[in-house]
Amino acid sequence: MRRVASGMTALALLALAACTPATAHRPDAGPGTPAPKGTQTRAAGPQADYLVFYADGKQSQAMAAVTQAGGTSVGEDARLGYLLARGARDGFAESVGGDPSVVGVSPDRSIGHATAEPVRSFPDGSALRAARASGEPLAGRQWDMRMIGADRAHAKAPGSKDVLVAVIDTGIDGKHPDIAPNFDRELSRNFVTDKPKDDNGETLDGPCEAAGCKDPVDEDDDGHGTHVASTIASPVNGIGIAGVAPGVRLVNVRAGQDSGFFFLKPSLDALAYAADIGADVANLSYYVDPWLFNCARNPGDSRKEQLEQQAVITGMQRAVDYARKKGVTIVSALGNGSSDLGDPKVDDKSPGYPEGSQKTRKVDNTCINVPAESDGVISVSALGPSGRKAVYSDYGVEQTDVAAPGGDAVDGKGAKATRSILAAAPERALRAAGRLDADGRPKGSDVVRDCSGGSCSYYQYLDGTSMAAPHATGVAALLVSRFGKPAPGGGLTLDPATVEKYLYASADRRSCPTPRQYVYQSYGQSETHTCQGDEADNGFFGHGIVDAWKAVTFEP
């Protein structure tokens, strides 16, 4: 079951929704070490799994606290400083969280969702008219690549196969003709197990397609991750489109369910794995739920809720720090809430899971959107084809690092699919969603079929900061390709701080609109977003619009 995403406004289109309880610790979920055996006694009553984050050097004390609270330690990830514990559904989190060695406790369940919006179907064929362009068959539809100079950069510097980009998402269709040449199946991993139904018996991921409900590493039943991967690195091969960095390698590090939503533990495992295999850039086009804003000590939340939010903040920050120390540049979607993240007032969307748990609470700027506001993450706002900030895109002078094309179907008179971002889509996912007829023809102009390569491949128009982030990821990959040095284990490496510096230096500076109070009008409604900051750094565009051509030609 899909629900409206947290923070959506009346002007925004549709969005993806929330997830499910996670499974227990699995050997394939990362190189965490098993907890030592002991004399722990499991508390009576219904049990649940928890991630218990401990303070530096306090592992043994946290282990004792788990036992004291009647729980059992069943796993550990020393890299990120947490225990996987099993304890009572009622009371365990508050009990173990009261120990000074513990800095956060989260149920091992769904806490995230993707930041993309399906584009409405426009049956009027006139909406599909696009300018002719040289290059790939569908290049004329890629206004986004022209906006950032990627079409010109392709010939000069397409990116190096020594650069590895991790797509932490719902998976990648590794067999798609416009992804397969750049897809590294050997290194790809799936850190999730599909869950057909949620706790209330509603359809979540749907029937399992693979034994044990664990999909192969080259499948994507949602389509979100495939779209992201395609924007980053679809090759120049005479088929469909080309991505920003068509010469780099893609690795699927799956952390999202078929339904498009994410669990905390797979998110941690995925980012740590990306670091361990030497990924140069990681794209995280999702944000953490069930809390739209994570507040460490909001008086309107219960102690258990506070501990969960502390765990989200702490856990993701540790994963980011671990990855950056290993040379991973991390890029995130800013979010589709149409909100000023620097001045939040009210959150009535949280907790977004389970359904019906939402409450209205006051929030302020001490509450953060994760991972977009985690330290060391490059956060990306979305633009429409006119260059304006997209109506749905979150913003904030402290939060927006760069801007990139994300699509905005209502950026102009009426609504047109071609104002959105076109990228690869899995045929199976399109069929499951009813977007193709029995003969494989698209049912609406939001889906495009290209048969110029001998066999047909499919593409879909989507809007979202999810679509903006991979443009920045692709430019970051070009920078590593150009300036990276040979890594000890092979490939290239470039310190994330240097990548960030060069990404900002090569961006196209853009001032706030005049007046700063920009009024969006669509479907008979209007709303105003206020841009703060100067040309060098502001809430709509950050340090500027990423520019692939400048990235491959500028001199630091």
From TrEMBL:
Keywords: Hydrolase, Protease, Serine protease, Signal. Residues 161-544 form the Peptidase S8/S53 domain. InterPro entries: Peptidase_S8/S53_dom, Peptidase_S8/S53_dom_sf, Peptidase_S8_Asp-AS, Peptidase_S8_His-AS, Peptidase_S8_Ser-AS, Peptidase_S8_subtilisin-like, Peptidase_S8_subtilisin-rel. Residues 23-42, 339-360 are annotated as: Disordered. It holds the Pfam family Peptidase_S8. The keyword Ubl conjugation does not apply. Residues 1-24 form the signal peptide. It comes from the Bacteria. The active site is at D169, H224, S466. Belongs to the peptidase S8 family. This is S8 family serine peptidase.
